[in-house]
Inverse folding.
C-alpha cells in the first residue's frame, strides 16, 4: 500500500508535498477526534462550530481556493485543491462535504454575482462568518435541473419562492440559500436569506455521514428581491450545469477516493492487529492473497 501511495505522490511538486504534509498533520490532530465525536453523537456540528472548522480549512485555501487572489480567494490550482480535498475526505468525509458546498457557493457567487451581491454574500463566506446551502434537488426530481418544481413569483421588485428542496447539504446551519427555481422568465438562481423568514429545515436521518447536515428545506412564499437573482434571470439551467462540472468531480470522485483510502487503511490495521487461530489474521493465506492485487496500480 505504501508503494502505491508513494507512486501516486511522485507526480506532486515539492510545494504540493509540503502543503499536503502540513495539512495532514493539522487534520489528523484536530479533525480526526471530531470525526469520531460526531459519529458517536449522530448529528452534525452546530453552525458556530462549523464556521470555526471552515476558518481552519481556509488556512489551506479549501474554501476560497477555486477563486483568484484578485477576487479575495486563495487562487490555488485544481490539482493542489484536489490533493488537499481528498486528504480531508480520508480523515473526515462529513466535513469534506460541508467544505465542498461552502467552497462552491463561494465559487458561484464570485462567478455570477454583481458587486452588491459579492459585498453582501461573498465576503462573509470568505471570512467564514456565514454558511450557504445550494438548493437544487427535489423529492420527485432529484438533481434534474430542467424539471425543478419550486416556483418564484415576481410582484414588483419582490420575489416570493415556494417549494421543497431535498438532500440539501449544510441546510441546518445555513444563513442563506442559493435556490434553483422557476421564475417567470425561466429557471433561475435566487438567493434567499434565512433570517428574513426565508425557509425552514428538517434534518434527514442517514445510515452514514451523520456528521454532515443533509436536510429538507421548505420555502413558503419566502421573500426576496430582484437584487437577489444570481447571474442571468432565466439562465439558471446553464449556470447550474456549469457549476456541476466542478462540484461533481469532488463530491463523487475525490470524496469516494478519500473514503476508500480510509477504509483500506482501517482494513490493513485490523488485519495486523486481530488474532485468530494463534496468529494475526494478516498472516492467513486468504487475507495475504488479497493485498498483492489491491489496490490496483
Amino acid at each position: 500500500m505504501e508503494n502505491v501511495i508513494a507512486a501516486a505522490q511522485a507526480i506532486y511538486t515539492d510545494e504540493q508535498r509540503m502543503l499536503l504534509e502540513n495539512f495532514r498533520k493539522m487534520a489528523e490532530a484536530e479533525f480526526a477526534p471530531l470525526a469520531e465525536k460526531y459519529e458517536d453523537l449522530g448529528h452534525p456540528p452546530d453552525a458556530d462550530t462549523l464556521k470555526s472548522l471552515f476558518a481552519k480549512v481556509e488556512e489551506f485555501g479549501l474554501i476560497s481556493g477555486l477563486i483568484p487572489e484578485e477576487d479575495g480567494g486563495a487562487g490555488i490550482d485544481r490539482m493542489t485543491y484536489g490533493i488537499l480535498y481528498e486528504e480531508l475526505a480520508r480523515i473526515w468525509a462529513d466535513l469534506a462535504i460541508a467544505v465542498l458546498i461552502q467552497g462552491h457557493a463561494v465559487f458561484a457567487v464570485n462567478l455570477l454575482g454583481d458587486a452588491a451581491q459579492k459585498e453582501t454574500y461573498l465576503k462573509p463566506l470568505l471570512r467564514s462568518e456565514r454558511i450557504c446551502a445550494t438548493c437544487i434537488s427535489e423529492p420527485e426530481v432529484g438533481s434534474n435541473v430542467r424539471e425543478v418544481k419550486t416556483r418564484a413569483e415576481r410582484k414588483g421588485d419582490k420575489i416570493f419562492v415556494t417549494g421543497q428542496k431535498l438532500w440539501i447539504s449544510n441546510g441546518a446551519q445555513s444563513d442563506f440559500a442559493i435556490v434553483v427555481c422557476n421564475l417567470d422568465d425561466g429557471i433561475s438562481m435566487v438567493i434567499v436569506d434565512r433570517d428574513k423568514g426565508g425557509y425552514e429545515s428538517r434534518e434527514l436521518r442517514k445510515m452514514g455521514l451523520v456528521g454532515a447536515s443533509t436536510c429538507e428545506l421548505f420555502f413558503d412564499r419566502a421573500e426576496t428581491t430582484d437584487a437577489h437573482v444570481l447571474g442571468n434571470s432565466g439562465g439558471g439551467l446553464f449556470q447550474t450545469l456549469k457549476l456541476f462540472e466542478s462540484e461533481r468531480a469532488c463530491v463523487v470522485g475525490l470524496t469516494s477516493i478519500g473514503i476508500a483510502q480510509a477504509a483500506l487503511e482501517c482494513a490493513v490495521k485490523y488485519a495486523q492487529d486481530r488474532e485468530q487461530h494463534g496468529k494475526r489474521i494478516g498472516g492467513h493465506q486468504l487475507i495475504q492473497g488479497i493485498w498483492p492485487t489491491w489496490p490496483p496500480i
